[in-house]
């Protein structure tokens, strides 16, 4: 799994679509946008080491990534989490996310003429 994770991280590096939160000299949380358009981003890949859960690190790294996106005029963000992941849901509500009541979303674009 480590080689696959390394490839994902290396692929995201040039896009500047991922963030690491560091406390002292310790990497404590990670967040990434796995999709983006000029005015919306999709958050995916949020991770905190199990021993560091519950300390607010995920909330901080996601909020920081959204502040960075807002500085680029992004107006909306979306993310997904499991129905039973109450801790993650509380974190996301704490930074302003609201449940949509939908299990999945699909955005279709009309083909346009240039």
Descriptive labels:
4-stranded mixed beta sheet; 114 residues; alpha+beta
What does the secondary structure layout of this molecule look like, with pairings?
Layout: H1 2-12, E1 18-23, E2 26-37, E3 40-47, H2 57-71, E4 76-79, H3 86-94
Parallel strand pairs: 3-4
Antiparallel strand pairs: 1-2, 2-3
What does this structure look like?
The protein is α+β, with helices and mostly antiparallel strands. It contains three helices and four strands, in the order αβββαβα. Helix 2 links the parallel strand 3 and strand 4. The termini are far apart.
Task: Give a short summary of the structure.
The protein has 114 residues and is α+β, with helices and mostly antiparallel strands.
Overall structural class, as computed from helix and strand content, comes to: alpha+beta
Shape: globular
Percent range for β-strand residues: 25-35%
The description of the largest β-sheet is:
4 strands, mixed
Encode the helix/strand succession as letters.
HEEEHEH
The radius of gyration computed from the alpha-carbon positions, rounded to a whole number of angstroms, is 15 Å
Number of strand segments:
4
Overall mean pLDDT score?
87
Please count the helical segments. Answer: 3
Strand order of the largest sheet: 1-2-3-4
Q: Which regions are unreliable across 5 or more consecutive residues at pLDDT < 50?
A: none
Fraction in helix = 25-40%
Alpha carbon gap, first and last residue: 42 Å
